[in-house]
Structures are given as C-alpha cells and as structure tokens.
C-alpha cells in the first residue's frame, strides 16, 4: 500500500513545481521573461511630426489671427512651434490699413517665414479756391514738410491720414491758410475764399517827389528769444511814393537765430500791416506795428514756432492809408494818430 501511494504522489509534485513558474504569488498566471511561443515584446509608438510658423508683419503693432484665434506676437513677429501640419488661415489687420488674409500650408520639419506688409488706407483731398489762377501749397502739419505745390485747384490728391496745412495765394489777393484733417477712405473738400486787396488809385502823371527823410537801403532784422517765442524786429523805410501795397518776406533759422532771407521794405508812410504764416508758425502777435512813434518804419512781431528746430517763414503785407500828398503833413498830427489806432495788431482771419 505504501509503494502505491508514493508512485501516485510523485507525478503530482512534479506537475505543481513545473506549473509554479507561470504563476505569481497570488496564483495568477504570468508571461515568462523573454516571451515564449506566441508572445511579442511591446514597443513605444513614434511621435507624430510637428510643423512651425514664422510671421513678420508691418506695421509691427498689427493684430495677427491664426484660425480665428488672436496670436500674441512680439515686435511684429509671430513664432509658433509644435503645430500640427495642415492648412491654416492667417489674417493680419490694423486700423487705418487694408487687412490681408492668407491660406498657408504647414508641412513637417519646415519653418518658412511669411512677410506681410499692410497697405495704408489713404484719403482724398480736393481744393477749389474762389478765384482761378491761385498757387496752392500743401504741407504736413506735424513735420512742416512740403507735400507739393499746385496751380489753380487740386482734385483727388491721395494723402495718408493726418493733419495738413493749406496755403492759397494769388497776386492782388490776401493769402489764405487752412488747417484740414484727412481721414482714411474719405474725401475732404475745401473751398478757400480769397479777399481781393484794394486796388491802387489811378496813377496821375506828376513830377517825382523826393521823400522828406533819408531812405534806407535794406530792411534790418534783429532776432531775440523770449522763452518759446522768437521776437523779430524789422527796421527800414524806402520812401517809395509809387506803390501803395507791398510785402516783406522773412525767413529765419531758429536754431542759431540767423536771418537767412529778407525781401521788401516799408515805405515810411502811414500803412496797415498783416502777417501771413507760411512755414512753422504756430501763433504770432504784433508787439509794435508801424506808427507815428517809429515814423512808420519799424515792426516788432513775436512768433511761437511749431518746432524750435525748423526754420520760420512768414510774410508781412502792408498797404498805405494816406496819399503821398497827405503824407507831407506833419507825421505827428491828429490824423496820423487815428491811423495808428487803425493799424492791425491781431492775427489773420482764416476762411
């Protein structure tokens, strides 16, 4: 009986020992290391390829939109990596400029830059003076740079949005200065009205009469600085008895206070003066107009330039108030004092 029992137990023990190599401590079956028949080793899947995008835009503060999402760029550059390859919609926009929309294709492992330059939306300017044959000058009000000089009238002049100064002049008429603003995608129309200067009386043939004073050769100009203002002193009288209207044209270099150009002179007879702002004159006032006290030969005007670094250009226009015969009377008479009170001391009227 004992021999029979051992023979039955031994195969069972071998079966348990050999089977224990495929079970863990909890009795669950496990796959042996190195695999076995019908088993394969697991592998990590390869990462999907990515694409990159580099966009440079002008102006640098433009808004960049990629697939309807606003992107955050830096100094006009958008640099994106880790994008899925495919088709993207790129939109670049900025106020005052024409928007641009692009459809771009991004491929793996490439980074082709895209350069986008927006086009400025301009405005149109039309200028039609009240009289024909005028000279029209258009200046940039911020930089005082000359945009162009035109004759007669201006039609459909394309300009970047901004502020401009318009100077319209014609011989025999009072010059007109207008400040206008040009807006994008709009048309600005101005119709300056020019006032005709008084016509001189018909000349009467008579013997040329010499002035009662010694005429000056040229107009002397002195400049001084008073804070933000430039004070200009003009002295001189020609003794001219034939002309009843005239102009003193003055150009100044504000940086060093040098007179770069002066033309014209007062006559030394009772007159009324005005000032036309030509370049870089923000405001002005007459400190001393021609009068009895200065023998109608002196003008002192205070000017505040738009920029202290740019030249100043203005013109003094004058017209006589008395005839030559009346000028022979005493310059200190009551009539001359009344003329002094009529002398213009304020800025021009803009139409």
Report on the structure:
The protein folds into three domains: 51-120, Sandwich (Immunoglobulin-like), CATH 2.60.40.1120; 123-190, Immunoglobulins (Immunoglobulin-like); 220-342, no CATH class. It contains three helices and 24 strands. Strands 3-2-5-7 form a four-stranded antiparallel sheet, with no helix packed on it. It has helices at 2-19, 324-327, 334-342; strands spanning 51-58, 63-66, 69-71, 77-83, 86-93, 97-98, 100-106, 113-117, 119-120, 123-127, 135-140, 146-151, 154-159, 162-169, 176-182, 187-190, 220-226, 229-235, 245-253, 258-263, 271-279, 283-288, 298-304, 312-320. The protein has 351 residues and is mostly beta strands. It starts with a helix and ends in a 9-residue tail after the last helix. A hairpin with a 2-residue loop joins strand 2 and strand 3 (69-71).
